[in-house]
Amino acid sequence: MRKILLLTAILLFSCLESIAQDNQDTVSSREHVRPLKKFERFVKKFIDFNDYDTTYISPNRYNFAFMLTNNTIFEHYRIGTSQPKEQRMSFAPNPSYKIGAYFGWRWIFVGWSVDAAEVFGGHNKHNNKKTEFTLNLYSSKIGVDFYYWKIGNDFKLKTLKGFTAPGSSSSPTDSPSKLKTSIDFNGLDAYIKGFNMYYIFNNKRFSYPAAFSQSTNQRKSTGSFLSGISYSSHKVTFDYRKLPSWIETQIEAPLRVDKVEYKDFSIHFGYAYNWVFARNCLACLSVAPAVAYKRSRIFSQYEENNDRHHNINLDLITRAALVYNNSKYFIGASWVGHTYDYKQKYFSMSNTLGTLQIYLGFNFGKKREYRSKGSQL
């Protein structure tokens, strides 16, 4: 009997110990799973692009969009030096006009545009080929811009500073005023590619897509801070030998640059505001300064070894839009501008690239949940 009771006690103790161990493992497992669940909920909430306040933003009722565009591309380059004396030159082409078509699926827009002169038989005396490709992703929370620009060689020399005009008796240092010119110059080429990614903080009430992709409607005025990262790669060639002789002979050594290559890594922080000034009418302004790290090489007579440079400069991203959108049809205009500032001890260059887009289009392919609703939102 004693043996049976002892054996029973041993088995009971073993069972209790096993149950306690299982409970401990379960608690440990739950403690291990809980952070994973929290992270999973955070990710789902972050990628939920429809998580917004419908009193401020009307949802998009359609899956697809199509629009025709007329893009005017503005470019401006300024190069200069302060050693041994200050000299500045600025270049800009006549604005180029492109027509194109864009197709959108919910929050992704992709398209292609061509030079209007090629379509309508315009004359291009430099046989210049410009290329622009962009891919934009807009959502209520995040946005991404991918871009590639091949800038042409049909520039004009617009202003000069620190140079003596032909026939002038004064020296370049006598007058700090700029000389305005309009001299054809085909010695400047540039290639730029990169991406820009940003996060909208007030994403429940502020809609970037309402201003720039027409995929939602802003119903009440509001603004939001935004922040993000950018990367771009630049390659600029400059043949100063193609300048008029009276300018070329006066150029200081630091400006005798053949090529500049640099990579730009930046962090930007800014503010955007959507103003609803009438029903279905929206105006948007966005400004985002950026702190940029640049890694570069300059190929010139002044730097024999073509050393690599590392420096910190400021960049700027600006956006503006004016749009009418009644959910089915939309028409409007938008501006997106990038300004890059590059400075070394003896050489500086700033370039601005901007696109003014005028567009009209329509949405189609109504979403399933709105097919039975005939009323306009």
What does this structure look like?
The protein is 15% helix and 54% strand. The chain contains 4 helices and 17 strands. It folds into 2 domains: 1-46; 56-370, OPCA outer membrane adhesin/invasin (Lipocalin, Beta Barrel). The protein is of the alpha+beta class and 377 residues long. It starts with a helix and ends in an 11-residue tail after the last strand. The protein is elongated.
List the helices and strands and how they pair.
Layout: H1 2-46, E1 57-58, E2 62-81, E3 87-93, E4 96-105, E5 108-115, H2 116-119, E6 131-138, E7 142-151, E8 155-161, E9 179-185, E10 188-200, H3 208-212, E11 217-218, E12 222-238, H4 245-248, E13 257-278, E14 281-300, E15 308-325, E16 329-343, E17 348-366
Antiparallel strand pairs: 1-11, 2-3, 2-4, 2-17, 3-8, 4-5, 5-6, 6-7, 7-10, 8-9, 10-12, 12-13, 13-14, 14-15, 15-16, 16-17
What are its keywords?
377 residues, alpha+beta, Lipocalin, 2 domains, twelve-stranded antiparallel beta barrel, 4 helices, 15% helix
CATH architecture of the largest domain: Beta Barrel
The structural class is alpha+beta
Strand order of the largest sheet: 2-4-5-6-7-10-12-13-14-15-16-17
Count of individual beta strands: 17
Counting DSSP H or I runs of 4 or more residues, the number of helices is: 4
